[in-house]
Structures are given as C-alpha cells and as structure tokens.
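Q: what sequence does this backbone want?
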C-alpha cells in the first residue's frame, strides 16, 4: 500500500477499470429489484458549473447506495441539446449551433467521467440527434390524430425592425436585444398541446406522490388552479347575446356595482365603433404584456364602455367597463366586479369613482370594515334580499341554484392551466412535422418520412429563421396530392424533448419511441434536480407520461416516484452565477484535490435540499479528512493488519466500547442515508469514528481485528460518496473483490448490547456523580453501589441517610 494518498493517480486507474468493465451498464434481465435514479440532464452550455456538480454528486451517491443494497440500478446521462444559447453562440462566434453543441457535449462528458459518476453511458442521448427527435415528431403526429394537438393564433414578441419573432429572453425592457426597437405583440398561428384535457388528472394524482416535497405539489396545484364557480349571464339591451361572466364568489352577487371585460372582448370592439377614446384604449392595452404576474402589479386602468347590463336577480342596470386587469384567456374574459369584496375591483372602483356596496359581514363581530380596502374573507350576507343571513358557503349554493332554475347561470369548474403552445420560430429545435398544401391544407408528414431533419446548411443572421427560405422547407411534394407545398418552419419548444427523455433512456436503442424496457424501468424511483423546474418541466413530464400511457407505451401514471429538489450553491451568501461573477470552476478543484475531495465537500457542506455555502477551507478540510483516513489504513496495514479473527468472548471493556461505536455508527449512517436522504450527518459520524480509532491504541489480536472491522465499515459507508479512494482502500484492506460489488454493512445487534448502564447519582436532588452498574443489577445492589461511590460519599458528608430513591435505568437520589 502507498504511504501517501495520491488521488489523481488512484482516480485515473479506478475510472479506467469502471470504463473497461462496463460495470454501470445495466439490463432488464436482472432478477434483482430495479432502481432507476435520474438527475436532470444538463443543457450543454460549455462546461459544468457547481450546481451541476452538486446535482450529479447527489444522484450518484444515491445510485451507488442503492446498488449496495443489491438493486439493479439504472443511472443514465444525456444532453438537453436544443435551445437558444446555441443560436446566440453561432451568431457571436460564427460557429454552427450543432458544432458548438457537440463540442460542449464532448467537453462536459469528460468532466462527468472525471468526477467518477457511475452512468450507463451506453444509453447516452442528445436531444438534437435526429434519432431522438424522430420519435418526438412521431408522437406529435399520434396526438394530432387523436385530437390532442391543434392550431390557433397566439401572440408572440415581434421586432418590426428585424422582422423577426423574439423569444422572451430576447426582449429586454420591452425592446429588441439586437436593435433596441420597441417590441410589439403579433398574433400568429401556432401549435398547441391539449394539456387542459388532463387538468383534472394532473391535479388529482398529485395526491399519489408521497415522495414529493409538499412545496412542489402546492406549486403544481396552484399552477393548475382548479376553481369552482358559476358562469352567469347579464342581459344587455339591444344585443342578442347576454354578457357572460365567471365568478368564484356568487355569494357576493348582490354587491356587484359594475362589470368589466377584457380589451379583446367582442363587447369592447362593439363599444369601440365610432368611439375613438375606446379604440385608443384598446390599442394601448394591446401593446402591454399580459402575463398574469405582470397583471398583479400593473396599474389598473379602464374606460366606461357606455353599455349597461341587467343584473340577473334585481334587474338593475350596471355599467360595463373595459379594463386591463381582465384576461381574455381566462373564464369568459368578463367579470362581475364587487369592489367591497375584491381588492382589484376595489382599487379600480376607487380610482374611477364607482359605487362600493358591502354585502358580506364578519360572522363573529370581527373587523369587516371595507372603507380602506376590500373585505375579502367569507362571512354572512346582508343587503342581499332573500339571501340575508346565509353564510357565504350556503349562499354559494342558494344563489347558484336560483340562477340555474332561472336559466341564467350554471355551476362550472375552471382551470387556470392553459394549453401548451409548442411552436417556436427558431432554427435550433426539432422541426414540427407537418406540410401545408394549397389544395389539401395541413398534411401530417407520413410516418415513413420521419424524421423531418433539421438542415445543417444554414446561416444564422438574427433575422427570420433560416428554415423559411431553406429549399427543403420552402419546396416539398405534398404527401397527399404531390403538388409543391411547404413545410412548417416552426420548431418545438425545447420542453418537449425534456418531457420524455427519462423514458427514452430506458429504451434507448429501441427502433420505436419506447419498447418493453420502458415498462420495466419506469417510473423513475428517484429524480434529482433544481427547484426552478418545480412547475413547467415537471408538469410537462407528468403530462407526457399520461399521454404515453394512454398510447400504450407505458404502464405507470406518474414519471417520478420520489423527487429531491437540491438547494442552490451560494458564494458569500448569494447564488453562484456567471452574471454575478462569483463562480468557482469545479475543474480547478478536481485538478488540485481530485474528484473525491470535491464530492465529499459537496455532500458534507449541507443537506441536499438546503443551500450550500461555498467555502475554500471546507474543501481543504475534506481533503485533510481523506488523508487522515488513508493514514489510518496505512498504519494499520503497516503493523501487519489483522490476521486473527475477533474473539468476541474475550473482549476488554474498551474493545467492546469501540466495537459498539462502530455498529452504532453503521446504524446511524444507514438511517441518515437510507431513510432521511441526508448525507452530511452520515459523513460527520464517519469522521467521529475515524477520530475514535486514532485514539484506540491496542495492538492485541482483538484490537487489530476490531480496527480492521471499523476501517472496512468506514470504507463501505463512504464508498457511495468517495468511490475512488474507497475502491483502493478496500483492496488494501486485503480484499480481492472490488468494493463496488460489496453489500452495505450490517449492524451486529449483539455489538450494540450493553451489559452495563450509566446511572446518575443525586444527593438531595442535585447531580453529584455517575456510576456504571450491571444491566441485571437489582435495586438493592444499585443502592449499595451508590452508597459506596466516593463522590457521593463526599456530598453525604457523614449525615444520616433518610431515604434512597432508585429510578430504574436513570438515577438514584440520596436524601440526607
Ligand atoms: C366576483 C368576485 C367577488 C370575485 C369577489 C372574486 C372575489 P380563480 O379563483 O382564479 O378562478 N375573474 C374571472 N375571470 C377573470 C378574468 N378573465 N380576468 C381576471 N379576473 C377574472 O378566480 C376567479 C375570480 O377571478 C372570479 O371571481 C373573478 O372575480 C375573477 F369578492 O367574481 B370574482
Ligand atoms: Zn396537397
């Protein structure tokens, strides 16, 4: 055994062994229980950052631990390779997006290998590879045939100067990132996936996800946003159609003082005829952002349409306003406004001098004043005619039933979730496989013509997508009539690729989208990634899983059984990021200390779900610990190692204590790693054990045997975290078999047993001493022993003993 720890040499050798033996390549033919552990695949941006290192280290530790439990563990890796940065790089450096992407992949793959992650590289995939996106196109056409895909117009960011569509990231303060021209909204036809058809199931099956953080489930539920309410009609004089609104608070119906419609509502257009003020207002609204987040903070503005509508219960006339806070895409694009009980309506009414009528009052005398702001909680009705005295909950039912009977309203469940727009007017993405023919209309590309490959011979100059003018896109034979037609030039949202990659890993070589192997491996048992994906990526992946299930490709309802959202990596208290210029390049540390030190530091610095504060001294500390462990093993070996088996019957007290500590550590670490998925405390426990061993000076046969057992246990417990050094130490401790094939250490229950127990001695209720008594000692024996204790005797000070109280297994109180 080498005297000094030389990480770089060890790591290179061990990695070469793993690579040549293909130990991490797994198949479905195993009789062991399967375990699919997946870390979110990276975007190949250039090189790994610390967040990647953290994500992939956590995943690798879990995978290796599960392997030691005897499971058939799949841990794959691949590349989320389409996206805007490649196009930007192409324009800045004149390199083709594909070349840029594949070069980055090559570099980052080497980095991952250098970190010693146990991936099944035979399943590697890059989403920009036609053999991958071919199946995405195939699946899109299946969904199209099923009616789960449709086309409709939707707004995009449009730069009138460059004549091009901009991604949201390319709009900076409302202007084009290249030419600074004010960006406009433009309506163009785009493809949508009908995720709303699965809204109910996406919400309901969140409840089955026991292994997900509550916070993530709540975020998903809010995003889906199921609400129960009433759609009701307000008749408008001189108009055929009544104005239909959606409300979740029909109990407030008698407090309505105006109605409000979105600027794109037909009624707004009607009012704009011959009214320039209204048409100008509508035009102003068009320029503004309509994201819901922006809606919340934006100044509320509106204009009276001049139109009056009839209240469905009282018949009173209420004014209809056009307002920028009403979204056309939600509910009916029109609301009944109740300023007394809705804060938005309140602010709007105050601004425009509209009446405020309170109809809900607190149940038990609490403050229900609404002269400063809206009173939004539920309560008891007043000023509401027949409904006075009802609680909000009862009024909800009573008022909706009244409306339903009069055929003026209907109870309705609404979802905030919108269908998923998947068209992107970008080059570096998967082409959407449809053809437009003047005679035949929209024609799906026939299956045998897939994939529709993205042409390589293009020049990106920042104006419109080069696909528009590309000959293979502008001229193609219509699959149904043969006439010259053109291809769709939009490409898929890159979220499409990341919505099913986990399934493709399981069937990576299938000559179909998925094969039977996907049914074997899925669901993913443990998924690890950033909280930034808590909503969209996870929701789309869940949606795709249900789509694939309904297509017969999978048998599970949910893709990820257990979800671990890792915390951020911070430096000086703020997020480590390129834009803040506070990054630490993992490569430098790997070169200096080796992969094991980096892995150990990352896992030791914080529990996986909490943020991790970077610390150079922490890295140093991790390195020192590995050197100390190495030295312990070396010294033990140098003294001849262990030759005689442990004789349990003849252990001294100290030997028993050390051995007990070894097994207590195994017990604690197994719980931390296996049950709590917390590693820092598990590492700390091993550090303590190493310290204990360094104080254990005993070169008897039993002493050596116990030290051997302790070192072996430490190596096994640390093997998932620092696999290279543990591989070497395991061999140096005298084993032939690689540590990778060895099982997780077992607790020897008999080692935990204590034949003595420590009891506290009190004199007159004050803690004065401690004694060690036999576990089987009787109360009398314990009393006798306590009354003989030197320290206790000193405090008794010769006084007569009035009483001795023995609390079994805890204390003895001597009263004098
Ligand atoms: C009257 C009312 C009184 C409301 C009250 C709330 C409180 P959720 O839960 O998200 O479904 N609303 C309906 N359609 C809208 C649209 N297109 N744009 C903006 N707001 C809209 O919210 C439903 C509530 O949001 C509805 O209930 C409506 O305001 C508003 F004390 O109606 B409510
Ligand atoms: Zn045709």
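A:
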């Amino acid at each position: 055994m080498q005297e000094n720890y030389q990480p770089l040499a060890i790591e290179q050798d061990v990695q070469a062994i793993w690579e040549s033996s293909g130990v991490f390549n797994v198949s479905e033919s195993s009789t062991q229980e399967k375990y699919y552990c997946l870390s979110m695949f990276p975007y190949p941006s250039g090189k790994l950052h610390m967040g990647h290192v953290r994500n992939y280290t956590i995943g690798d530790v879990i995978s290796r631990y599960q392997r030691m439990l005897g499971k058939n563990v799949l841990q794959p890796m691949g590349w989320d390779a389409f996206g805007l940065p490649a196009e930007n790089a192409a324009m800045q450096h004149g390199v083709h997006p594909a070349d840029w992407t594949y070069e980055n992949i090559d570099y980052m793959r080497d980095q991952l290998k250098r970190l010693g992650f146990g991936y099944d590289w035979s399943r590697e995939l890059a989403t920009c590879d036609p053999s991958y996106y071919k199946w995405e196109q195939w699946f899109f056409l299946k969904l199209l045939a099923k009616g789960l895909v449709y086309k409709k117009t939707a707004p995009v960011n449009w730069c009138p100067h460059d004549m091009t569509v901009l991604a949201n990231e390319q709009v900076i303060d409302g202007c084009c990132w290249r030419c600074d021209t004010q960006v406009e909204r433009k309506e163009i036809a785009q493809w949508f996936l009908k995720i709303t058809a699965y809204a109910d199931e996406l919400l309901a099956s969140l409840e089955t996800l026991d292994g997900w953080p509550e916070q993530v489930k709540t975020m998903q539920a809010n995003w889906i946003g199921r609400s129960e309410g009433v759609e009701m009609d307000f008749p408008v004089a001189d108009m055929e159609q009544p104005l239909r609104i959606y409300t979740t608070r029909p109990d407030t119906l008698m407090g309505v003082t105006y109605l409000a419609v979105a600027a794109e509502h037909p009624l707004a257009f009607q009012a704009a005829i011959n009214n320039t003020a209204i048409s100008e207002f509508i035009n102003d609204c068009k320029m503004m952002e309509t994201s819901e987040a922006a809606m919340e903070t934006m100044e509320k503005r509106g204009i009276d349409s001049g139109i009056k509508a009839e209240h469905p219960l009282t018949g009173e006339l209420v004014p209809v306003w056009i307002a920028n806070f009403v979204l056309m895409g939600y509910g009916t694009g029109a609301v009944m406004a109740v300023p007394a009980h809705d804060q938005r309506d309140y602010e709007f009414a105050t601004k425009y001098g509209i009446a405020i009528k309170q109809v809900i009052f607190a149940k038990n005398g609490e403050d229900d004043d609404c002269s400063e702001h809206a009173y939004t909680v539920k309560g008891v009705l007043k000023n509401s005619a027949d409904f006075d005295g009802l609680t909000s909950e009862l009024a909800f039912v009573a008022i909706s039933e009244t409306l339903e009977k009069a055929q003026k309203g209907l109870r309705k469940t609404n979802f905030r979730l919108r269908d998923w727009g998947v068209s992107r007017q970008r080059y570096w993405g998967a082409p959407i496989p449809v053809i437009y023919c003047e005679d035949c209309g929209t024609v799906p590309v026939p299956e045998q013509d897939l994939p529709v490959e993205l042409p390589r011979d293009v020049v990106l100059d920042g104006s419109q997508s080069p696909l528009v003018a590309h000959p293979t896109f502008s001229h193609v034979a219509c699959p149904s009539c043969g006439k010259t037609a053109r291809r769709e030039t939009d490409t898929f949202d890159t979220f499409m690729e990341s919505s099913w990659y986990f399934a493709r890993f399981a069937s990576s070589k299938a000559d179909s989208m998925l094969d039977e192997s996907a049914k074997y491996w899925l669901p993913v048992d443990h998924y690890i990634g950033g909280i930034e994906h808590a909503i969209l990526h996870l929701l789309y992946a869940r949606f795709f899983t249900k789509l694939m299930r309904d297509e017969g490709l999978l048998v599970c309802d949910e893709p990820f059984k257990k979800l671990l959202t890792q915390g951020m990596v911070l430096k000086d208290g703020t997020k480590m990021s390129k834009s803040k210029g506070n990054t630490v390049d993992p490569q430098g540390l790997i070169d200096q200390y080796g992969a094991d030190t980096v892995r150990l530091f990352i896992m030791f610095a914080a529990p996986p779900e909490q943020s991790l504060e970077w610390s150079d001294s922490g890295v140093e500390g991790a390195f020192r610990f590995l050197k100390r462990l190495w030295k312990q093993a070396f010294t033990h070996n140098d003294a001849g190692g262990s030759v005689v088996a442990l004789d349990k019957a003849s252990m001294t007290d100290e030997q028993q204590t050390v051995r007990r500590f070894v097994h207590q550590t195994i017990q604690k670490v197994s719980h931390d790693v296996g049950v709590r998925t917390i590693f820092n405390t598990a590492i700390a426990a091993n550090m303590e054990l190493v310290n204990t061993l360094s104080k254990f000076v005993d070169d008897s046969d039993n002493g050596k045997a116990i030290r051997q057992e302790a070192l072996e246990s430490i190596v096994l417990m640390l093997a998932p975290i620092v696999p290279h050094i543990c591989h070497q130490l395991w061999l140096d401790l005298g084993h032939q078999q690689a540590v990778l094939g060895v099982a997780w250490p077992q607790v020897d229950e008999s080692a935990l047993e204590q034949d003595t127990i420590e009891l506290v001695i009190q004199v007159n209720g004050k803690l004065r001493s401690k004694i060690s008594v036999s576990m089987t000692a009787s109360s009398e024996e314990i009393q006798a022993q306590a009354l003989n204790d030197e320290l206790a005797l000193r405090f008794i000070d010769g006084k007569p003993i009035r009483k001795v109280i023995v609390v079994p297994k805890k204390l003895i109180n001597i009263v004098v």
